[in-house]
Structure formats: C-alpha cells, structure tokens
Amino acid sequence: MQLIFIPLWQQRFLDSFLLGFFSWLCYHPFEIIFPNTGEFNVAQYLLISWSIILAPTIWEILSVYDSWRARPLFELIVRIGIGWLLVLLGGLLILFFIKQVNFLSRLFTIYWFLCCLFLMYLYKYCLYYFLRLNRVKGQNAKRVLILGSNSDPRWAKNKFVFGAQEGFEFMGNYSPTSLALDKLPMLVKQYRIDEVWISLSITEAAYINEVQLHLRNLLVKLRWFPDRMAMELMLNPMQDFLGLPMVVLDEPSAIGRGRFIKSLFDKSFSFIALIFLSPLLLFLALLIKFDSKGPIFFIQPRLGLDGKIINVLKFRSMKLHEEFGIVTQASKEDQRVTRVGKYLRRYSLDELPQFINVLMGDMSVVGPRPHALKHNEEFSDMLEGYLLRHKVKPGITGWAQINGYRGETDTLDKLAKRLEFDMYYIANWSFWFDIRIVLTTAFMGWTSKNAY
Asked: Does a structural domain hold residue 176?
C-alpha cells in the first residue's frame, strides 16, 4: 500500500500559514473584549511576522515534523509548547534590541501567544487522530517483517493490538533458525517491506549485526526491541575511563549527560516557582504562626543523593511533640496535626518550601520522595534494593506520587509499589518524563485521599 508522505517544506509552509491565520483570527475577538487597547502597531506586526517565519524552524529542530506513528501525543504537545515559547522569547529579545518592546501591548502578547498555541494544539491533535483513524482502517499502513520473539509478555499484546491501531501490517515472523539471512533481502523486496523489527536477546548481538549487514543496501527501517537485560545495561551511562569506553552499572540515566539538563531545569523552575509563590508562602507562614505555638518551618534530616544526610524543609503542620526515638508516620485523624496543618497536608502545601532545598542542590523537583531516617532503616530491611532509590536526588514530587502512592505507607504492598514506581522513574528518566510529572502534579497531583 502506498504511504502518505508530506514533504517537510509543505508541513512548514502550512504551519506558517496557519499561524498567520490564527493571529488574524485571534485579533478580532480581542478588539471586542478589550476595545481600548489601541490599534495594531509596528511592534505587534514584527512579533507576529517573526513568529510565522521562525516557529517552523524551531519545531523542526525539536523534531515536531518527524513521524509520530506509535509515539505518545503528550511528547508532541510538549515539544510544540516549548518551541512556541522559544519563538516568543526570541521575538521579545529582538524587539528589545531594536527598541520596540515598549510599544508592545503585554495584554495582547499574552492573549495572542495563548490563543495561537491553543489553536495549533487543536490542529495537531486533530491531525494526529485523523492519521490514526486512517491507519485503523488499513490506510497508510507500513509493512513489517519480524525477526525473533521477545520474552517480555507485553510484546505480543502491544505488537498486535497497538500495532494495528498505528497502521502496521505484519507480513511474517521468523526465528533465526527458520530464515537464512542471505534470503532476507529478497524477502524484503518481494513483500515490499517498510520496516524490519528485531526482537532478540542481547546474547544474539552477532546475529543482529549480520541482519544489519545484509540489509545495508536496502531503504528499510530497522528497529530492535531489546529484552529486559539489554534495557538495564543500555540505561547506564558510558564514560571514558583510563582511555577506554566503560559503562557505569550502578548509575541511572539521570547521572552523566542528563545531569546538567536536570540540574538546569531544577534550578530554573524552583527560582521561578519561589518568585511566583512568594505571596502564598508569606500568607501560609502567617497562618501557621497564628494557629499554634512553634516555629513556622519543620526541618527534618533525611537521606539524599548517595545516602548523604540533608535537612528537608517543610511548613510545620503538627503541634510540637516528642518522638522519643520513634518516628511515627502521620495517619488519618492524627491528633498531632494542627487546624491549618490539616489543609496544608491535604493539598501538599507543606512541601512548597522544598523549592529552597532544590535551589541549595539537596533535592530535585522530580524524584523519589525522601523518608525519615528511621523509616529508611526499617524499609531497607523489609525490601531488597530499597536504598537504590537514593542513586538520584529526592524530589518534591515523583512518578509514584502522581500514580496514587503518596502519604502513609502502612503496608508492605504499598511500600513495594512505591519502590517499583520510583525505580521505574530512575531507569526511564528523561527531561520529557520530568515535564510530564510536573504538569500532572500541577493539574491533578496536589490532592489525594491518602494525604493527611
């Protein structure tokens, strides 16, 4: 079946045209809603013209125009949003240098930015699902040849259920023993194969290399679906050590090349968050002070990166009390919780001062939540590998928390599930994963039935 292919220049031209149309479309309601903002001026024309020209280039750099077949829509949405924000910042910088930024209406700029972003999201969303609907109907399908069989139980389900939804037509499945490699190129040509999927263990690396060699003269896409053992090895960072390539087996992907990106995001996000949240933080501090005796902040030593002890900052949500060497987890209807503290804990507002911990370098915005030192000792005895979660900095929010595992860990099963989500985050860290967790927390993750 012939594949639908839209040249890159056409995609870029269409997006530029749509941005111009969206800008024109947004302006008329703006005139009605805000009639006294003045006429369109040179600064606004320059900003819109700059955006129409530059946005497709930025989106191309961010891989927005790549094929998103079988890839998550969320990641596409994030890339579009980041690209559009970069375009706006670049436009404002140019207007600043040519001394035109003072003539720009701040109200119009914010309205135009959000309006165009929403309409572009709507267009990309419709396009994404229109293509997906066509693929479900058998149109624009890609022919796939499979070599091997993955041991992961999700492989069979995802291959056939989701593969069909994304427009993949499976033409055959061969094991290394049932297909001679010298016949593979002929098979690919005969059935007009678009992609060859290799689903073999890393122990079959020699065979995988042979497949690459036999198909090197054919324009066919090769995909390897590694087994769990290979994935665990690949997620570890590679370094130059004694002049030789070396893989560090006990460091997650957030360490190494990703560490700078994560640290830059942590510091920038926390700095901006503290500025915008400062009125709220001051208000909460006054409420705590007038509600009960004691300090505004509660400082507790907890384990940080590589087991280093850090002092975690929180708004005090409990009455002053003695633990006598025993750290008791907060429970439902806990009598130690103050009136204000009840709401602070319910909506996770007591965690907001931890942005200061992030700026100090002790914590990250996203990561496994830190537990009390006494709890760490208990939990490490209960669960093997529990302390591996401290291979990264603890976070204000995390993958476990947005999946419902927050608050009291009163059963071993809850603790095991929290550890499972934490280890998944560590093994699969990426900048986009952090963005996803932050956005989910911002819109849905501040309240929970387990928060008390």
From this structure: yes
